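Project standup — Tuesday

K.O.: blocked on the structure for the chain from last sprint. Re-posting the sequence here as requested.
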Amino acid sequence: MARIYSYLTFSGNCRKAMTFYQHCLGGDLSFQTIGETPLSAEMTDEMKGYVVQATLTKEELILVGTDLVADEGLTKGNAVSLLLNCTSEEELKAYYAKLSVGATATQAIEVNFWDTLVASVTDVFGNNWLLNYTRN
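H.V.: unblocked you, prediction finished:
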C-alpha cells in the first residue's frame, strides 16, 4: 500500500525549519540544494542555496520539506496538521516543550474525555502540530 508522508513547503527557511524539527524530534536529516541539481546553471548564487528537498527520518517518522514555492507564493492555513502519536506521557511533554519554543500554544496539554492526553501548537514556522498519547 502507498504511504503518506508529511511534505512541508517553506520560503527560503527550509534548512532552519528542518534543523529545528531534527532538534525537537531527533532522527537523521539530509538536504539537497538547488546548487546540487541541473537547475543550478539557471539560478542565482542565492537560489543555489535553497533546499530542493530535505528529509528527516526517525523510525516510522518521515518528514519532507522544500524551499520551492509555486508561483502564487506560500499560503499557510489551518486545514492540515502534523499528528505526533506519542508512546508515553513523557514523550508528549518533551516534544511539546521543544515544538513550543517561539510558537503559539493552541491547546495546553490536557486529558480529554476519552482519557487521551492531547495538546496542539502552531510552531514558529507556521505549521500546526497535534500531539496525542492514548493512556491505558
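K.O.: great, moving the ticket to review. The first helix runs from residue 14 to 25. Residues 3 and 62 are 10 Å apart (CA to CA).
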